[in-house]
């Protein structure tokens, strides 16, 4: 009887191992597919500005009688597209450092309230240009937190500049914040174009954009929210998005007051 038991246990163990192996294989296949898609995206995103740089540069070298104004315009495009490529490469490098776990957070205690005000100050001119009103309302017990101040501000700026970019002129952007137990939350709500339900789950994916042309026009790379998400997760926090097409979008960032635990930092 005892040996029957042992065989039974052995068989169970073997079955468990086999199904675990199967799962691991599926995960590898999935991540391999994602990696391929990512490389294809990177190539495409870099090729687009490169093609345009090349064709403008060719036109300039092949024609000696281009009017000065046109020449300036072409050079302007070349410069703009190179800047775009630089931005994409910088964002990719930052993401790959996160993937490799090579990003050290510089944790300090700081006033998130000051950060919220600084960031909204930084975007105020751009918002004004579009006739947007930015309101800030933080609860009284809004605490100081532990975190990487520069990176948290980068997250807030990214969300806020999306709110500005994807809201038709004359919109309202409301920043609210408060504390729930050991966590602080900041909500950035806009009255913009919104995000279709079917795109919401992919919005944090690298290079994912609802409207590529619109994002490109406003200097977007489609990497902003992916980076924001990495930063927030590394802090042991969470980032959530709700949206209704034609009504607006609300992005909520939740962070632990005490900062990331050791493993995360
Ligand atoms: P991008 O550089 O294109 O802005 P992000 O990663 O910051 O890239 O955002 C990804 C996409 O999510 C955007 O291209 C846009 O389609 C959508 N999006 C982000 N924020 C908003 C918002 N506040 N309102 C509407 N759409 C948004």
UniProtKB/TrEMBL annotation:
GO terms for molecular function: ATP binding; phosphorelay sensor kinase activity. It is a multi-pass membrane protein. It is an enzyme of class 2 (transferase). One of its GO terms (cellular component) is plasma membrane. Residues 41-259 form the Histidine kinase domain. Its EC number is 2.7.13.3. It comes from the Bacteria. Its main location: membrane. It is found in: Cell membrane. It catalyses: ATP + protein L-histidine = ADP + protein N-phospho-L-histidine. Signal peptide: none annotated. This is histidine kinase. It comes from Sporobacter termitidis DSM 10068. The lineage of its organism: Bacteria, Bacillati, Bacillota, Clostridia, Eubacteriales. The chain holds residues 224 to 488 of 488 of the full protein.
């Amino acid at each position: 009887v005892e040996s029957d038991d042992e065989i039974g246990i052995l068989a169970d163990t073997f079955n468990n191992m086999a199904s675990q192996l199967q799962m691991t294989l599926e995960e590898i296949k999935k991540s391999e597919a994602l990696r391929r898609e990512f490389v294809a995206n990177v190539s495409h995103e870099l090729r687009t500005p490169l093609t345009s740089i090349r064709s403008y540069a060719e036109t300039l070298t092949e024609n000696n009688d281009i009017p000065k104004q046109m020449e300036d315009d072409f050079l302007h495009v070349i410069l703009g597209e190179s800047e775009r490529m630089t931005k994409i490469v910088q964002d990719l490098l930052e993401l790959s450092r996160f993937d490799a776990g090579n990003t050290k957070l510089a944790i300090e205690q700081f006033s998130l309230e000051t950060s919220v005000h600084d960031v909204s100050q930084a975007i105020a001119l751009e918002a004004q240009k579009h006739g947007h009103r930015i309101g800030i309302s933080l609860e009284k017990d809004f605490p100081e937190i532990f975190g990487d101040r520069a990176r948290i501000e980068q997250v807030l700026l990214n969300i806020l500049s999306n709110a500005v970019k994807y809201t038709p002129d004359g919109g309202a952007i409301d920043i609210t914040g408060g504390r729930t137990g050991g966590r602080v939350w900041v909500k950035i709500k806009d009255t913009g174009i919104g995000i279709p339900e079917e795109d919401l789950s992919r919005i944090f994916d690298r290079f994912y954009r609802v409207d590529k042309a619109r994002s490109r026009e406003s200097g977007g790379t489609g990497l902003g929210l992916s980076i924001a998400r990495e930063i927030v997760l590394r802090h042991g926090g969470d980032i959530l998005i709700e949206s209704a097409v034609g009504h607006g979008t609300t992005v909520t960032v939740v962070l632990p007051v005490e900062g990331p635990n050791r493993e995360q930092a």
